[in-house]
Design a protein that fits this description.
Structural class of chain A: alpha+beta
Order of helices and strands of chain A: HEEEHEHEHHEEEEEEEHHHHH
Helix content of chain A: 25-40%
Distance between the termini of chain A: 85 Å
Largest sheet of chain A: 7 strands, antiparallel
Bound molecules: magnesium ion
Largest interface: A-B, 64 and 64 residues
Oligomer: homodimer
Radius of gyration of chain A: 23 Å
């Protein structure tokens, strides 16, 4: 009786349908997300990565950020919201988790998977956290990841608790105060082996912090975000990820050499190549043979390309 | 093929279920709402009111605010969050829309239907807006209402757009910057006759403003809230409520006399009764016969009650 009267109430009160905040989930080739039509950012983005999907030929240089064609335009972020805002476009499902498929990587550049992220954080600490997740696939069969934004309160000089965050562009995209990640590693039987929850301020983090500095109890993240991430899994019994594995992110020198390597690969002019290479000296780094060889071969390639170009432009 | 690969992706990526932000809708006897587990307030509250459900014997004095027993305690607001916070407990589905049923009224006092509202706004402008909605049922067969909170950006002295709002209590209940209402009136065939959307700052409003000062285009409210309120209704063709009806709220004098009447009815001591009655003079109001009779009869009742009480307390 109570149920049928509730159904009757629904039919009367919601005669014109359930107020719609968009689909609960949006499914892509290699990630699934829930999108916040008010904030114009994801709520959560889920991934399952293995050795298999983080390696492959997909090339991010062929891809541009774009509004998600699946999101209604009135609720969509646009590139113009981000450009000149002072905030970078931060992936939640990282491009680098989609190396196996150009299409999957393309989908990771939809703005439904993006939020306004501090540039140094995006390229630095958060990047190293993403690399740590990918490294876990070398040791564990699968890695389950949930990423997303938070707006957390602070306390002002009068002891008042309040939430404050910028919005950018004409679509008023919300800039989160923090980003979260839940990481679950799985054993060969695909059983959960370790779980860690992390809340990282959307600010420059630098190299002084260990990942554990940002570890929180999953319950705390659930309360702040309003989300139970794995409703069908009793997470209480799962050991702490940072006890099972190290939670050590890549060290500064190694990371900076890695980033220089990526920039050398991406260099399109000799001038830029030399500028990148000079970072080795200014940052007081010691390149390994791989990097020296990479520099030399890119130098040869670009020298040849620029010679050809000069000749052609003279001829034309 | 694309669909089946998406289903496969869902099964793998969301092996432990869809991240859960609570049920999409929560159905009560006379209202339906969606609850924000992160903000600990409703997202939207829907009602359909008629002459039939705004009249009756239900008595709000027998009811106390309480946490919604249907909301998981980790996501629930509590009375202690509100008490001493400086913010009142503001109904979205008003208690006064549930006079036909004590049970429905009781449900309207669940904190899932409540948000932190400026006290003057709650008892004043917003109250008058709710009374206006009830008055509409005298002229129109049905009135459809959606109410809820918004956090809207402001611009600081440097031209920066940001959102700022307090959170209260240990559960960090979000205090909205604004409240919204969508009102649809229906004709005798239950067809939509007029629609108005309003965004009211969560501040004292006073009597200087007309309701139209807060009217917005429904599209604007949809974009800010991320909600399409009536997905099965083409709202574009529906005339403006304030053109069809007046959107005139009750005038100051009439409203203050009405509020005094309610306080007289609720008075439990002679002292309080006299204090309320003295407002007539200090506010320079002219009571009508109904109010004068109400005052006199309450005075007789309370005089008698207090006499009895004195006698009894002497005896015991
Ligand atoms: Mg990134
Ligand atoms: Mg109220």
């Amino acid at each position: 009786e109570s149920l049928s009267s509730q159904i009757k109430a629904s039919e009367t009160i919601l005669k014109y349908g359930i107020p719609d905040r968009g689909p609960d989930i949006r499914v892509y080739d290699n990630h699934i997300l829930s999108y916040d039509q008010a904030k114009k950012t994801p709520v959560w983005v889920a991934e399952y990565i293995t050795k298999g999907n983080i390696d492959g030929p997909a090339d991010r240089r062929k891809i541009k950020f774009k509004s998600d064609p699946n999101v209604q335009s009135q609720f969509s972020a646009e590139n113009s919201d981000y450009l000149g805002s002072g905030w970078s476009r931060g992936h939640m499902a990282p491009a680098g988790d989609n190396k196996h498929s150009q299409e999957a990587m393309k989908q990771s550049f939809y703005l439904s998977n993006i939020l306004p992220q501090n540039l140094e954080n995006n390229g630095g600490f958060w990047n190293r956290l993403e690399m740590y997740c990918r490294d876990l696939t070398k040791k564990y069969k699968g890695v389950r990841i949930f990423s997303g934004p938070l707006v957390l309160p602070t306390t002002d000089e009068n002891g008042l608790h309040y939430v404050k965050y910028p919005v950018i562009g004409k679509n008023e995209v919300s800039v989160p105060t923090h980003l979260y990640k839940v990481i679950i590693i799985e054993n060969d039987k695909s059983e959960p082996l370790g779980l860690g929850a992390f809340i990282v301020p959307n600010q420059p983090i630098g190299y002084e912090h260990h990942l554990k500095d940002f570890q929180v109890d999953l319950k705390q993240l659930e309360r702040s975000s309003g989300i139970i991430f794995t409703p069908k899994l009793d997470t209480v019994k799962i050991p702490d990820l940072c006890q099972i594995d190290s939670c050590d992110l890549m060290k500064r020198d190694k990371f900076e050499l890695y980033m220089i390597g990526r920039k050398l690969q991406g260099a399109r002019t000799l001038k830029y190549l030399e500028k990148v290479w000079s970072e080795i000296e200014t940052k007081n780094l010691t390149p390994d043979n791989y990097l020296i060889n990479l520099y030399n071969s890119r130098k040869l390639e670009l020298t040849y390309e620029e010679k050809v170009k000069r000749k052609c432009s003279v001829k034309i």
